[in-house]
Design brief:
By secondary structure, the protein is α/β, with parallel strands linked by helices. It folds into 2 domains: about 5-25 and about 60-145, 3-Layer(aba) Sandwich (Rossmann fold), CATH 3.40.50; about 150-275, Hypothetical Protein Tm841, Chain: A,domain 3 (2-Layer Sandwich). About 40% of the residues lie in helices and about 25% in strands. The strands form 3 sheets. A 6-stranded mixed β-sheet has the order 10-9-8-13-11-12, with helices on both faces. Strand 9 (about 185-190) and strand 10 (about 195-200) form a beta hairpin. The longest helix is centred in the middle third of the chain and has 16 residues, at about 120-135. It binds heptadecanoic acid (X90). Heptadecanoic acid (X90) binds near residues 154 and 189.
């Protein structure tokens, strides 16, 4: 029996130590350039090209064949995708799962729609691993993780929402909130997997305070949190310090956004995945 975890690259997770884990990349496209979201993608260079060409850019999700290739060989598979409300990744993974089962009747495969992305997907992956380490069966793991997903959230704090709006992931009117210089928009992945705006803030200090307050308002009590930043390590570290100051035992980790999340979160963006009650 071989056990495998697969996620799309919007998780920003490309490797897991001692686990059979693989990612399927999303792609960022601009005028014939295709940037594949892998750890070797030079994101600063991608941003430079996108900025210089100034023409239409977009993204595309993995197709079902790419998911199928990633499942291949495993007898128990857990797959985790970006929210099905904003991407076709989940639909493609489901098609692949059905095909995989049709060909290999004995395999078990479960696809989780994170209704979110980035660090919240990482929390889901961590939970799958935790269940496996405890020796839980496939079915027990699926049940525990489905319950767990109800107790995790994703907040985002963005300086610009241009790429989200231009690609139809949020309305132009909402995106304008973050358009003014020095204003950051704070929002949350909603229960149905869409972007929901919460606050707008001027200045870094106010921004970080408001993020922590929004975490608490949505049920954070000092458990696990992962902060992913797009070229904004200073803010990520300050936010971590604020969280730990308030909740001494909080387990907070900082990671970098990969290609897909960097494209949409844009320079300076923060994504915070966290557990809540
Ligand atoms: O299929 C594709 O082309 C991918 C489309 C992805 C669109 C959204 C990506 C969002 C990335 C920005 C802030 C957090 C959003 C919360 C999601 C519910 C990160």
């Amino acid at each position: 029996m071989s056990f495998k975890i697969v996620a799309d690259s919007s998780s920003n997770l490309y490797y897991v130590d001692k686990y059979d884990y693989s990612f399927v990349p999303l792609k960022i496209n601009c005028e014939g350039h295709e940037f594949v979201d892998t750890p070797s993608l030079d994101i600063a260079e991608m941003n430079r090209v996108l900025y210089e060409t100034k023409s239409r850019s977009g993204t595309s999700c993995p197709n079902s064949q790419e998911w199928l290739d990633a499942f291949n060989g495993a007898s128990e598979v857990f797959a985790v995708t970006i929210t099905s409300k904003l991407s076709g990744s989940y639909a493609a993974a489901k098609v692949a799962a059905d095909e995989y089962k049709a060909v290999n009747a004995a395999v078990k495969i479960c696809v989780f729609d994170s209704l979110s992305t980035g660090p919240e997907m990482c929390l889901i992956i961590e939970k799958i691993i935790e269940c496996d380490k405890k020796g839980m069966s496939f079915e027990e793991t699926e049940a525990v993780v489905r319950e767990y997903i109800k107790h995790t959230h994703l907040l985002f704090s963005l300086k610009s929402m241009n790429n989200l709006a231009r690609n139809g992931r949020i309305s132009m009117a909402k995106a304008k909130i973050a358009g003014v210089l020095g204003i950051r928009a704070i929002g949350i992945a909603s229960e149905i997997g869409t972007l929901e705006m919460l606050h707008k803030c001027r200045g870094e200090a106010k921004n970080l305070e408001t993020i922590l307050q929004s975490m608490i308002d949505t049920g954070y009590e000092g458990a696990r949190a992962i902060i992913s930043h797009c070229f904004n390590i200073e803010a990520a570290e300050k936010l971590k310090a604020l969280i730990v100051e308030k909740f001494r035992k909080a387990k907070v980790e900082i990671t970098k956004t990969g290609g897909l999340c960097s494209f949409y979160a844009e320079d300076g963006g923060l994504l915070i995945g966290y557990e809540c009650k």
